[in-house]
Fold each of these.
Amino acid sequence: MVVLSQPSLDQLSLIKTCKPSTNFSTSIPLIDLSKPDAAKLVVKACQDFGFFKVINHGVSMELVKKLEGEAVKFFGLSQSEKNKVGPAKPFGYGSKAIGPNGDMGWIEFILLSIDPKLVAQKSFYISKENPENFRSLVTDYLEAVRKLSFEILELIADGLEIKPRNVLRRLLEDEESDSVFRLNHYPPFPELQALSGENLVGFGEHTDPQIISVGRSNTTSGLQISLQDGTWVSVPPDHLSFFINVGDSLQVMTNGRFKSVKHRVFADGTKSRYSMIYFGGPPLKSKINVLPSLMKAGEQRLYKEFTWEEYKKSAYKSRLGDNRLSLFEAN
Ligand code: GA4
């Protein structure tokens, strides 16, 4: 079923189209979490790319399949049914508009906070048939990907030799952690594709403001990351693995050693892309600051200290593609 109507001309002028130029020769770091060298490789990937793929991640594929099935069902509903979830301001269903400041993409999505009460409340509109099933799938999925994010943050602490081991993990483990969960659907647009051969930008280039993001997709391609020299690399889809992004906050905590990866998604003209991403953020009152033990003698701090609440407020005033950290650079 075609879920979003074909783009009209005025929508197309807002949603960027282009023939993406990409570099296919660079391969994305692949890290087997069951291997003893994982900590070293995670740190290297965070420094070189701010991005990597993990296998042996411990998340049940059965669970992933079931939740993706629910997402497919939901995005297949009529527009009026989907609208009943409520606008994504900040949590709910959104279509084409990304964030509050005029960014647009060829996408529809559900944005949820990980607060169990909100998940339960929204489940009634997302799955009228069986809200309890949807709620419990999201809860179990979040438990599994959060566990994975904790493991990765501990590997980072080990690899950087920072103590205690849970110094990063505890920010996401905290009951007040301000984390977000997003289910995305990038619908196909076969007629337009056939006509022009152009691609539509599904989610424009940006960095994630949080500490770390854990995402996966179905087998439809579209994700690209920017390398440090500015070239874009297509990330081949892999529905069995998870992709990890360093967020702005982790860049600050490592004084720029880790790079918050710039990424974007193109919608495929012929096939639906579905993705689900957990964005791990700290409690609102947490101070985001360089980890003191990382600072070498004479090293200058690159960023001022700020609370996650301050950074989040500032992020929500920005456009998607802005360099949000530039406002927090130390003089
Ligand atoms: C990017 C990462 C997450 O998807 C997100 C996005 C958020 C939104 O879609 O509402 C933002 C974007 C993201 C960064 C800048 C602001 C906020 C849209 C936007 C223009 C949920 C997040 O936390 O930040």
Amino acid sequence: MFNAVFIDKQDGEQRVEIKSLDESELPDGDVTVRVQSSTLNYKDALAITGKGPVVKQFPMVPGIDLSGVVEESSASDFKPGDTVLLNGWGVGEKHWGGLAEKARLDSRWLIPQPAAFTPYQSMAIGTAGYTAMLAVMALESHGVTPDQGEILVTGANGGVGSYAITLLARLGYHVVASTGRLEESEYLRGLGAEGVIDRHELSEPGRPLAKERWAGAIDCVGSHTLANVLASTKYDGTVACCGLAQGMDLPASVAPFILRGVTLAGIDSVMKPLAYRVEAWRRLGELLDPEQLTTITQSLTLDQAIGAADDLLEGKIRGRVVVDMT
Ligand code: NDP
């Protein structure tokens, strides 16, 4: 038997509990993993609270990230005792996920645990850090270099935002953080932000073009914020679009694209092919100091994860949440 966060829906009503399950109830897969750590991401909080259509079938065990030890495997790439890592692939949405002491998975979704990090540390990074790395790689591949000027990170106190600041600063970029929590400015400066602005400067409807300021940006919030960021991006700049914390809409005009050559680069971590994942985790290993991860992270037990979901959606949680099952 093992414990899991278990989401069910009956007569249109969603219920969430910690449930003791039998291994025979696990879904199909060629690798069974004893989960050591998982995380609570924005998407997991939407799944647990039912505030977003994340769960595609019920019952569901949420958790889009996990790290752990292989217990059983019929896949040639993995054997019992191997430590593995998973981010995305629809796990926690269509297939039972990481907020459980056990998971049965498709081996094609797994990568070997990166040598630079312990399983706990890799979950402190999790999908948030890996997505931030993909966003930084997108800026790099579109030619945004540290000498070009300021890079804006929106949703700065969140998981993706915190890692985006850390990685960009480590690479020598001049980072400006946009946040609704100015009281956390010291934390953001500690991560490497050289400037902090109030997110309300960007969150209301703005003009199609504004004064050019940003050489590039990593946006976690979408909606009017993303529209205003695009409008104030410098000629030939690139904006990596990661998230929708303010909204899924994009009330923008084509002006920044056709008059300033601005690029909007979409970032999807969920279905990203394996080679990019391995490269992103290699870069994370190169750039992140494992000691610094503790500044960004807090730990919860499986039972506490359910209650923390509301706090996360209300923006009360700073940085990352690791759900520790060791
Ligand atoms: P968090 O909840 O950790 O952070 C979101 C941050 O956004 C908050 O901390 C807050 O930052 C800011 N925020 C919250 N509400 C609003 C609002 N109404 N208006 C403006 N800003 C707001 O989430 P994550 O960092 O894990 O994820 C960020 C976004 O990226 C989410 O939308 C998530 O779904 C998405 N995502 C996308 C991925 C992809 O593959 N594209 C992968 C991972 C995440 P502050 O308090 O500093 O203002």
